[in-house]
Amino acid sequence: MKKIILLLGFISLFMLQACTSAFQTMTEFNPVGRLDQSTIKGNIVSSVDDIAVYMKSSPEGFAVESELLHVEDGYAHKILGEIIINDHKPSNLTRYENAKQRTLQQLKQAAYDQGANAIIYCIVNVSNEPTWSEVIRARSIGLGTGWAVVVDEKYLN
């Protein structure tokens, strides 16, 4: 009898741990242009919180034509690359509490790690309290995406 109770206790503990597992994601960074980071000397902002985020937009001087992002003539911006936050581990919804905020924070951290001062055309595909259909959709297209860029300081809003 003690063995059965002990076994049930172990199973319950295991199930509880599985249900409350941490928000585990994978950050992918796809650099663009010439792979020469020598022009970026460390971080140009003092912390992750200083990364400017432009949701589905950008400051003056960036343009998208034929699905390609580029810097317009006369601007000193730099495009470093695309950031994609993915989640490939099926789990339960409790794992996705505050998913939007956490995804946005991970995008900012990835941009900071690359030496960016902004993320442009940022999209977060989950809310803070997502439904299962939202989670399934986000897992297929990414929890969040954006472009890590260095925006000329006079154009930062």
Topology:
Layout (H helix, E strand, L loop, with lengths): L1 H18 L6 E6 L20 E4 L6 E4 L2 E4 L6 E9 L12 H15 L4 E7 L7 H10 L2 E7 L7
Parallel strand pairs: 2-6
Antiparallel strand pairs: 1-5, 3-4, 5-7, 6-7
Can you offer a commentary on this structure?
The chain is of the alpha+beta class and 157 residues long. The chain has one domain. The chain has three helices and seven strands. The strands form two sheets. The chain has a five-stranded mixed β-sheet, with helices on both faces. It has a two-stranded antiparallel sheet with strand order 3-4. The protein starts with a helix and ends in a 7-residue tail after the last strand.
What tags apply to this protein structure?
157 residues; two-stranded antiparallel ribbon; globular; alpha+beta
Share of residues in strands: 25-35%
So how many helices? 3
Helix content: 25-40%
Rounded Rg: 20 Å
Instruction: Specify the overall morphology.
Output: globular
Q: Could you provide a short overview of the structure?
A:
By secondary structure, the chain is of the alpha+beta class. The chain has one domain (23-155).
